[in-house]
Amino acid sequence: MPQMGVSVVEGTVIEWRKRLGDWVESDETIAEVSTDKIDTEIPSPAAGRVVEILVDVGTTVEVGVTLARIATDARPGEPHDAERDAPQAQVAAAPAQEPAAAASPPKAPAAPAQPPRNRRYSPVVQRIAREHDVDPNEVQGSGRDGRVSKRDVMAYVENQRLSAPAQNDPPLHIESPYRADPDPGTGDGPYVPPEGRPLSRMRQLIGQNMHRSQQTAATCTTWIEVDVSRIELARKQKNITAMPLIARCAIGALVEFPQLNAWLEDDIHTVHEQVNLGVAVTLGDDDGLIVPVVRSAQDLSPEGLARRIRELARRARARQLTPDEVQGATFTLTNPGQFGSIMATPVISQPQVAILDVEAITKRPVVVTDAFGADAIAIRPMVILGLSWDHRALDGALAARFLANIKQRVESYES
Amino acid sequence: MATSSTAARTGPNTPSDSLPAHLTLDDRVGLLRAMLLMRTLEERAMNLYRQGKVPGSFYDGFGQEAVSVGAAWAMAAVDRLCVLHRDLGAHLVRGVQPDRILSQYMGREDGITGGRDGNVHFGDYRTGCVGMVSMLPDMMLVATGMAMAFKLRGEQRCALTCFGDGSTSRGDFHEAMNWAGVQKLPVIFVLENNQFAYSTPTHQQYAVNPIERAQTYGFPGVSVDGNDAEAMFEATSVARVRALEGGGPTLIEAVTMRMHGHAAHDDMKYVPKALFEEWRKKDPIDRQSARVAAHGVDVEALKTEVRDQVEQAAATALAGPMPEPESATERVFHPRDADEILLEDGAAPWSGFVTSSEGHRSR
Amino acid sequence: MTEGRNPILTYLQAISDGLRSEMREDERVLLMGQDIGVFGGAFKVTDGFIEEFGVDRVMDTPLAESGIVGTAVGAAVVGMRPVCEMQFADFVSCGFDQIINVAAKMLYRQGLPVNITVRLPSGGGFSGGPFHSQNPEAWFMHSPGIKVVAPSTAQDAKGMIIASIRDPNPVVFMEHKNLYRRIKGEVPEGSYETPFKARVAREGSDLVVITYGAMVHRALEATEDLDDAEIMVLDLRTLKPLDEQAILAAVRTCSKVVIVDEANETCAAGAQVAALIAEHGFEDLDGPIVRVASPDVPIPFSPPLEEAVLPSVDRVREACRQLLEY
Q1: Quick one: three-class SS letters along B221-262?
Q2: Looking at the complex, does the CB of residue C205 fall below 8 Å from at least one CB of chain A?
């Protein structure tokens, strides 16, 4: 288990990309592991044949523990009859990985005790496998020479659906707290609960973080309504989203109220000079979120922020973030408003003392007062900013003033 | 072969001297004007061609203007025409605007085919003309078919088709002549014998002059001075009356000479100089000019008028846009729900069509 | 005729019925061909027509295919609706120039539509020999400006000849002469049009045979009871334009495709179908696109030779079986 990040002490194997008996090239990805910071692909240290897998998927071991053994004196194409009792990795059948999966067999025979076969998949089989996130290598072929037919893969998919094995979810850094609760069941008669399953590693990690935060901090939330008309105008002119503009305003407020740009760890209160802005980014999965950090965000313009955020998001989704890119945040910004929700109670990311939540921008009728004091109704794009803050480090008044500062910056924004 | 049981529509074989086929001075000037317009237009177009504004090939009917102008002058508005690449005069008589012709040559959007076909490969259906194909005698059958429809419907109309000496060697010439003869159709075959088919002289084209073979198809063949617009008019008029009276087809040989090359790229080295000089003296425009000048018409003024008209046409055409590339794949099929498009009547400037005389009434 | 049911007609009778119906409805319709009048047509399609419609509308033409088509073009542009018959599809080559150069290109070049229909009694299977057995549809599919249709049932034959006459464009109508008296079916009375679209002759999901004309019947026979597989048969009916949507939908459902052409293999209609599927249906394929066609030889006369050339029921069945097993 490699050491990924200075403070990392342990890691969990998420997925084996090579199985027992497979050939692996030097630097070719052999496994994927997760720490509480990040998940990363592990490149193989050498070329050779995987002869032993010591740590199962889902197991957590300390840094330095051997994960697998590679025979470097082996030659590709040799037959072998290693047992397949190592747990199977569920390969997400992403299109980019298909050629890799299909290309490796020529170097390493597939399964033991089966005649070597040239595993090719017809276009429709590949498409169906891709659509259903199925590994065609897993499918028994009933066609000529063991060819996997459309019928075979459809039968496999149907089987999967019926037996629904445990999924290894891709790991997260911090979970989004905004997912809807599952519907409560309704029915008559004595309720027969379905079989429960243990939470995934990722879920457990996130849960621990959330729980720890709730137990540690004295979390309160304050909200303020903001008119984002000027932001809307500016974002169209600059051709960016509203988020970096609001972020810019928040950073400006943080410079004026540095007490919110701070850490609290065991009564040690550290106020930071530079703003390392953590920006929550969805990974594109159903419930995947990661928070890469924009270092020295106070030096960036909205356009610069937009660019930096975009780049970090791209790398996050491609699983290319380094551990250092996800640590060191002094303040966090989260923006789940894309789904239409207007308010939330975000959870502070330890050891920070605050987190700002930007919900959906919706058009509302508001009262506007003109220069002569006359009131009128206008339609304005409005957003509710929510700030969760740690009452151990500050009071509500400061939180409110901080929010008011953001509001004033947003409502008077000029490019 | 089973013989057709079509009831033969016989009519009197009208002798030519009883035809009221006279031309007023206006007609005579009109003939000259049309020939001048054809020649001036083609000269202007040749210039544009040499300037690179006319893509592809360039064909003209220099020296043959009388053939198409004289023949078209005899056609009523309801008649239909299939003419070829040296018959620009027919299009002008029928009413096609000169600027649209130049646009056509330059492949512009306002050309009659909108850039779909080039040079004289056009037929403005609004003037009752069917555009030619490059397989020239094919159009003889189309004209025959139009005549066939007229006869079947009992209409007092005829069709005219022009083709060259070279066309007579192809099968469609025979099929058309035969078909028209056996069904006695109101079609006028105008054989433009300009002595050469590209570089092939007539004595290498046929053993017996087609005029002599017409009778074997069941109808007369007449030979006419193709460089005399009025003679052409006369012969065509006679043929038309014949056709309308149920006499069937006529083959008119318009004897003329192609004074330019087959196309602009042809230098005509194969034509004997003496032959060329002989025909130069018979220029149709010179002859018609002399005719009308003798009646006091200011030919120079007419020429100036025509030149101005052509200049204006050129200016209009040059200002027009090229076709949109996206339009290249349009109009391959006519939609079911679209209006039917048929050939329409063209202009018929002969004075005889204006006065209501029998058999020459225009619709 | 049974009350409440449509009359049963042969494929040939259906074509006659369609022609007659349209002749009655539209006085502009003019039939032209060799021996179609007094003789009633070489195959008797126009038997009795001259008595009903007269010599002016049922025209016995000279023996001149180019003449028939060329004059038809002329008649069409002055408002008639000619229906030309080539006595055998094979002889259309004598009128080829008029079809592809004069008729087909007139609208595109001159804006003048040419409403002609050219009926081609096509196909082999009765010792017709090289000049009486051809399937020349590909020549016309390849020429822009021409529609090509090929019904396989009596009902479609009537509906499509009517639709072809009404279509304002040149339409080449492939009537398979081996189906003339062999195929019978219910044919609705009166006037109706069959759209220029494909038809599912039999539903299925394991494999689809895509074909047209006489081969539709051969395909149905060959796949009736094949290893418990459910084999779809798609009757193209229209070759130009091809019903791309129907073809791709069938490929999506079945994923295995056998295309049958009675015509010679190279550049037959099926080759275009195969190219279409390879390009637009790639991700739905569970096996190579298989073609069954006559080899590139003139259709021979002697029965054992002809049978060896034209796609047989066994050949089609075997191709399907191989592909099912793939």
Answers
A1: EEEEECCCHHHHHHHHHHHHHHHHCCCCCEEEEEECCCCCCC
A2: no
Distance in Å, alpha carbon of A28 to nearest chain C alpha carbon: 29
For residues A302 and C64, give the distance between their C-alpha atoms in angstroms, rounded to a whole number.
81
Q: Is A391 a catalytic residue?
A: yes
C272 touches chain A (CB under 8 A): no
Strand order in the sheet with B159-164: B80-82, B159-164, B187-193, B250-255, B221-225
Q: Which amino acid appears at position A331 of this protein?
A: F
Question: What confidence score (pLDDT) does residue A411 get?
Answer: 94
In this prediction, the residues of chain A whose per-residue pLDDT falls under 70 are 3-8, 36-38, 76-118, 164-188, 202, 284-288
Fold classification of C8-186 (topology level): Rossmann fold (3.40.50)
* Closest C-alpha among B156, B118, B122, B153 to residue B139: B122
The reply to whether residue C169 touches residue B334, judged by beta carbons under 8 angstroms, is yes
- Chain C: nearest CA to B76, how far in angstroms? 15
In this predicted model, what pLDDT tens digit does every residue of C8-48 receive, in sequence order? Answer: 999 999 999 999 999 999 999 999 999 999 999 999 999 99
| CATH top-level class of C199-324 | alpha beta
Residue of C252, C283, C286, C321 to mutate when probing chain A, most A C-beta within 10 A: C286
Query: Tokens 């001297």 belong to which residue?
Result: B17
DSSP symbol at B128: T
* CA–CA separation, C123 and C145 (whole Å): 23
Has this prediction a pTM greater than 0.90? no
The reply to whether residue A123 touches residue C283, judged by beta carbons under 8 angstroms, is: yes
Q: What does the block give as tokens for A103?
A: 């290309």
- Integer CA distances (angstroms), A36 to A4, A295, A326, B322, in order: 10, 20, 10, 67
In terms of Cβ atoms closer than 10 Å to its own Cβ (0-12, 13-18, 19+), residue B83 is buried
Query: Per the CATH hierarchy, to which homologous superfamily does domain B5-13+22-197+206-324 belong?
Result: Thiamin diphosphate (ThDP)-binding fold, Pyr/PP domains (3.40.50.970)
- CA B104 from centroid of its chain's CA atoms: 17
Interface predicted TM-score (ipTM) of this complex, two decimals: 0.91
